[in-house]
Design a protein that fits this description.
By secondary structure, this protein is an alpha/beta fold. It has 7 helices and 6 strands. It is about 45% helix and about 20% strand. It has a 6-stranded parallel β-sheet with strand order 3-2-1-4-5-6. Helix 7 links the parallel strand 5 and strand 6. The chain is globular.
């Protein structure tokens, strides 16, 4: 069994307040991979409240984003439509990595034959790497891969640094 994790492809990270050209450039690749994937596809969503600036993350990144119920919180339209069509599971997470996703992967590995998890999305250097590491911690024998051409970091340099860090942690870096 295989699992694709689409990380935080939300409007605020792509076209909104924290959007980048790099993030915009991967939307089609992420969509194509998710649409054609021959396994289960799940999504993570950065999920904040109006009191975001009072959190540790908000004090360190004082840019209000991904507040649940706002337009910026939503998945990019093409991915939202795809996730709804397929009835995909969505993991809302208040921080970088999703413990619930880790527990889900562990259950799939232990009881349903999960052998591979692949990740795409944003930001390579924050949420993609965090979720890849959570998955490795919860299911160390599952092969984890990240598609470098379907991920984008805050900067090109931080994207490449994150890919190198994941390689060092036995996460495969591939192109799709």
């Amino acid at each position: 069994m295989k699992l694709l994790v689409v990380v935080d492809m939300q409007k605020d990270f792509v076209t909104g307040v924290l959007g980048t050209e790099e993030a915009r450039s991967i939307v089609d690749a992420v969509y194509d991979i998710a649409k054609e994937y021959d396994g289960e596809v799940v999504y993570t969503m950065d999920t904040h409240t109006a009191s975001y600036l009072e959190t540790q993350e908000g004090r360190n990144l004082p840019v209000i984003h991904c507040v649940e119920g706002t337009e910026g919180f939503e998945l990019m339209d093409c991915l939202k439509e795809l996730s709804e069509q397929k009835g995909s599971k969505v993991f809302k997470k208040p921080s970088f990595g999703s413990i619930a996703l880790g527990e889900y992967v562990k259950d799939l590995a232990e009881h349903h034959g999960l052998t591979q998890v692949e990740l795409v999305g944003v930001c390579t250097d924050i949420c993609v790497i965090s979720n890849a590491m959570v998955i490795k911690a919860f299911a160390p024998e599952v092969e984890v891969s990240v598609y470098e051409n379907a991920t984008a970091g805050v900067t090109v340099e931080s994207h490449n640094n994150a890919l190198d860090a994941m390689k060092a942690c036995q996460i495969r870096i591939e192109k799709k």
